[in-house]
Amino acid sequence: MALAPQDTEIPETMIRRAARALARAKAEGGGCFRFFDADLDACLRARILFETELRGAVARDELVPYFQPVMDLASGRLAGFEMLARWPHPARGMVPPKEFIAMAEDIGLIAALTEGLLRRACRAAAAWPEGLLVAVNVSSLQLRSHVLAGMVRTVLEETGLPPHRLEIELTESALIDDFDLAREIVGSLAALGVRLVLDDFGTGYSSLARLQALRFNKLKIDASFVSAMTRDPDSHKIVAAVVGLGQSLRLQTVAEGVEEQAQADALARLGCDGGQGWLFGRPVPAEAVPWLIRQATPPNGVLGLA
Questions:
Q1: Is residue 191 in some structural domain?
Q2: Which residues contact 176 (CB under 8 A, 6 or more apart)?
Q3: 162: domain CATH number?
Q4: 3-state class of 192 per DSSP?
Q5: What is the pLDDT of residue 303?
Q6: Cα(137)–Cα(181) distance, rounded to whole angstroms?
Q7: 185 or 120: which carries more pLDDT confidence?
Q8: In 3D, which of 108, 130, 128, 145 has the Cα closest to residue 65?
Q9: Is residue 7 a part of any domain in this protein?
Q10: 73 secondary structure, DSSP code
Q11: Which pairing describes strands 133-137 and 93-95: parallel, antiparallel, or unpaired?
Q12: Which sign, positive or negative, has the C-alpha torsion 85, 88, 89, 95?
């Protein structure tokens, strides 16, 4: 519905605005009516513009990888980097992934987006010293497609990065919808020789039986537990339990969101293998990584950023 005179008195505009209200009613499940709302219409037009810009950015391969250090807590040495997506937008500046990844999934761009970023990340990592790993997140939607392993294989062959230096990170929620299919695709990734990481462990719904059935190499402890572990005994117990579970299953553990030295010390005492967070360094573009690597090698020994 659109009303005169408050919405407009121009017949053509009235029809367009009524059509927009109809589109919103359909988007909300149908079986209802909606009035034209100028504020909601402005939001819709802004979303359409953002979507159009994202399509163009992915098509032109304009999204760039940033890299956050991951440290070995026992030795204090650099273990590798996690790749984090960034979109250098001409008007908005550097757009973080939380503002465009969900949209990319909704409009069917996530596979092309991931492939472009994975290729850039692997090409950069191939020039790093042999011992350093690079971790890349994969959308839960991609665990419903048999093309994922083939895409990873092609990128590794093109960039020359040895498979054992690539970590593919999957969230617990990615394993819920179709576990049999997810297990098949995870197995095909493992067959390539890449390392598999279960991200944000403890926040999803995967059972221990599923964890045992899949060939993961590492568990990542969610930042929400790590940030509270030095002041909340229950959070400390959860982190300790995850570290102990990893040790019993011969899986490495990495804690996310480490921002304080007290957290790093507590994690090291528990036997957690790795940590990442602002204490060790913020995400940086690919061209800054060689400088971080030089800072992390002897005689300095550890990454000198906080």
A1: yes
A2: 204, 205, 206
A3: 3.20.20.450
A4: helix
A5: 45
A6: 18
A7: 120
A8: 128
A9: no
A10: T
A11: unpaired
A12: positive
Q: Which domain holds residue 105?
A: 63-295
Q: Tokens 């060939």 label which residue?
A: 215
Burial class (CB in 10 A: 0-12, 13-18, 19+), 75: exposed
Coil vs helix vs strand at 22: helix
Token pair in block for residue 108: 């069917």
Q: How far apart are CA 300 and CA 75, in angstroms?
A: 12
- The pLDDT tens digits for 188-218 are 999 999 999 998 776 666 567 777 778 899 9
**Rounded Cα–Cα distance for residues 212 and 25 (Å):** 45
- Residue at 98: amino acid letter: K
Number of domains forming the structure of the chain: 1
Q: Is residue 38 part of a domain?
A: no
| N residues, the chain | 306
Distances (CA, A) of 30 to 37, 39, 40, 43, 107: 17, 21, 17, 20, 21
Q: Are strands 166-171 and 195-201 parallel, antiparallel or unpaired?
A: parallel
Are the beta carbons of 281 and 80 closer than 8 angstroms?
Answer: no
Reported pTM:
0.83
CB 46 within 8 A of CB 61: no
Kindly give, in sequence order, each residue whose CB lies less than 8 Å from that of residue 66, ignoring residues fewer than 6 positions away: 83, 84, 85, 86, 283, 284, 285, 286
| Strand boundaries in the chain, DSSP class E | 64-72, 78-89, 93-95, 133-137, 166-171, 195-201, 218-221, 252-255, 274-275, 284-285
Cα–Cα distances in angstroms (integers) from residue 180 to residues 108, 139, 152, 153, 253, in the given order: 23, 17, 20, 22, 25
Confirm whether 170 is domain-assigned: yes
